[in-house]
């Protein structure tokens, strides 16, 4: 199985991207292809799920491992296939899905395309209590907006700087989740993180 791919997004449409990896173009179906930058100078990491059927071999792509994990759990529910799973994730806020399942809120789940009351009830029966690994202490799923490799490195460098300053892992983890939305230089990440800690 292909666990992840790293390359340049050279094309995207409403349902997929083409990721160029060392000259090979991988067609990857995504919940929201437009979160990926088609600037060919940037490298992007896409976490993948390979779906195999008698007449189909497709790659599905996700910005985080957590998003992919939720997708694979959704596929275990009767009545939900890859297309349905992507439609649920396309809203861009997996935390809403997880919360609705944990709280048995069918009214939220039936708002997703292709999900009726029967399937919503099945989602709750099959998945309640099994999605905690995808949720932080504040019931937030890691943001799905991908950073370029350069900015991922800058963010990790900043987090190491915070550790060197003596901040605890819990505080650092909260800052990292919030700052994953932003593309900054390492020193800017550090300044923003310190400001966030002061404001708490």
Automatic annotation (TrEMBL):
Protein's job: The RuvA-RuvB-RuvC complex processes Holliday junction (HJ) DNA during genetic recombination and DNA repair, while the RuvA-RuvB complex plays an important role in the rescue of blocked DNA replication forks via replication fork reversal (RFR). RuvA specifically binds to HJ cruciform DNA, conferring on it an open structure. The RuvB hexamer acts as an ATP-dependent pump, pulling dsDNA into and through the RuvAB complex. HJ branch migration allows RuvC to scan DNA until it finds its consensus sequence, where it cleaves and resolves the cruciform DNA.
Residue ranges constituting the Helix-hairpin-helix DNA-binding motif class domain according to the UniProt record: 72-91, 107-126
Xref: InterPro entries: DNA_helicase_Holl-junc_RuvA_I (IPR013849), Hlx-hairpin-Hlx_DNA-bd_motif (IPR003583), NA-bd_OB-fold (IPR012340), RuvA (IPR000085), RuvA_2-like (IPR010994), RuvA_C (IPR011114), RuvA_C_sf (IPR036267)
Protein family per UniProt: Belongs to the RuvA family.
Gene3D superfamilies in alphabetical order: 5' to 3' exonuclease, C-terminal subdomain, DNA helicase RuvA subunit, C-terminal domain, Nucleic acid-binding proteins
Species classification: Bacteria, Bacillati, Bacillota, Bacilli, Bacillales
Intracellular or extracellular location(s): Cytoplasm
Tagged with keyword DNA-binding: yes
Record-level GO BP terms: DNA recombination; DNA repair
Pfam families assigned: HHH_5 (PF14520), RuvA_C (PF07499), RuvA_N (PF01330)
Swiss-Prot/TrEMBL keywords: ATP-binding, Cytoplasm, DNA damage, DNA recombination, DNA repair, DNA-binding, Helicase, Hydrolase, Nucleotide-binding
CDD domains with a match to the protein in the record: UBA_RuvA_C
Free-text note on domains in this protein's UniProt record: Has three domains with a flexible linker between the domains II and III and assumes an 'L' shape. Domain III is highly mobile and contacts RuvB.
Listed SUPFAM superfamilies: DNA helicase RuvA subunit, C-terminal domain (SSF46929), Nucleic acid-binding proteins (SSF50249), RuvA domain 2-like (SSF47781)
Assembly notes: Homotetramer. Forms an RuvA(8)-RuvB(12)-Holliday junction (HJ) complex. HJ DNA is sandwiched between 2 RuvA tetramers; dsDNA enters through RuvA and exits via RuvB. An RuvB hexamer assembles on each DNA strand where it exits the tetramer. Each RuvB hexamer is contacted by two RuvA subunits (via domain III) on 2 adjacent RuvB subunits; this complex drives branch migration. In the full resolvosome a probable DNA-RuvA(4)-RuvB(12)-RuvC(2) complex forms which resolves the HJ.
GO molecular function: ATP binding; four-way junction DNA binding; four-way junction helicase activity; hydrolase activity
Underlying gene: ruvA
Signal peptide: none
Region span, Domain III: 154-200
Name the UniProt record assigns to this protein: Holliday junction branch migration complex subunit RuvA
